[in-house]
Amino acid sequence: MKKVLIDCDPGIDDALALALAAGSPDLDVVGVTTVGGNVDLELTTANALALREFLDLGDVPVTPGSAGALLHRTVRAGHVHGATGLGDVVLPAPVRPLSDGHAVDFIMDALRAAPGEITLIAVGPLTNIALAVRREPRVVEWARELVIMGGSYTRGNHNPAAEFNMLADPEAAAIVFEAGWQVRQLGLDVTLSALVTTDVLDRMRPLGRLSELLVPAAQFYGVVTAEGGPAIHDACAVAYVLDPSLFTCVPAVVNVETMGTYTRGMTVTDFNLRGREANALVATSVDVKGFWDLVLGAYGRLGRR
Ligand code: BDR
Ligand code: CA
């Protein structure tokens, strides 16, 4: 059983990533921390709290973190995820409260208490992770691995150069990539292959109560067609932890552009190491059929509960 701590900004695809974790008996979710990203922190936190109960995540602590980027003005993606962050899905109001404290403390304390055991999965802007690294550099040694959804070596989505999670806090992303660990990076290069097609959507429909989240969320997120549909980016990071063999990964030196007028937030990726140590293991392809079998298998287990 792998222990994971998920830092997120739900967010439609964050919700689908949490659902994948919740439906995977091989994962032990030790905590969910939130960050302002797709929508404001109050909303990402409220969504995480509602998802914990809807997805049957038990007593997993949900701890709020950073509201905004380290340095620059806030960027949001409400136009993609809807005003609340979950499209037009309205989840039952949660009964249990938020945990006290701050996400950055939670991350440091959890990793300190179990060195080498917990995989950090970050699927929002990297503000909390960067602050944890600055407050306690040993989190880099204590984490079993850091797996992120973010960046790309070929393109952006928020603009031609930058992927949203990187653009939302480029300084934080730069700190995280420079921290001394080998970041497992699931970027747009692979996540844009994990599309909710009509076939995938049809496999989500019979999943009982869970389908009331999955189907409208996916439909809100993008137009579903036989050839393509919305990408559920964040689920790729959880899928990687569950089965890394689904992805081809290549070591690289990744630097995050923090100053470019047109390229701020770009992950400048050099696969030619020239003797340097790789600070990232970058996913370059995904077994799409294997990915959906894994994801829909987990959703099926959760839907049958
Ligand atoms: C990433 O940005 C957010 O909008 C999504 O939740 C995902 O984490 C995709 O670029
Ligand atoms: Ca996200």
Write structural notes for this entry.
39% of the residues lie in helices and 17% in strands. The chain has 13 helices and 9 strands. The chain has helices at residues 12-22, 41-54, 78-81, 103-113, 127-135, 139-142, 164-168, 170-177, 188-191, 198-204, 208-221, 233-242, 288-304, and strands at 2-8, 27-34, 62-64, 118-122, 145-149, 183-186, 247-256, 267-270, 280-286. A 9-stranded mixed sheet has the order 3-2-1-4-5-6-9-7-8, sandwiched between helices. The model has no long low-confidence stretch (mean pLDDT 96). Bound molecules: beta-D-ribofuranose (BDR) and calcium ion. Beta-D-ribofuranose (BDR) is lined by residues 11, 13-14, 38, 77, 80, 123-124, 149, 157, 163-165, 233-234.
Q: Which distinct ligands sit in these coordinates?
A: beta-D-ribofuranose, calcium ion
Mean pLDDT: 96
Global geometry: globular
In the predicted model, the low-confidence regions spanning at least 5 consecutive residues are none
Question: Structural class given helices, strands, pairing?
Answer: alpha/beta
Strand order of the largest sheet: 3-2-1-4-5-6-9-7-8
Give the C-alpha Rg: 18 Å
In percent, how helical is the residue content?
25-40%
InterPro entries: Inosine/uridine_hydrolase_dom, IUNH, Ribo_hydro-like
GO molecular function, one term: hydrolase activity
Protein name: Nucleoside hydrolase
Organism: Nonomuraea spiralis
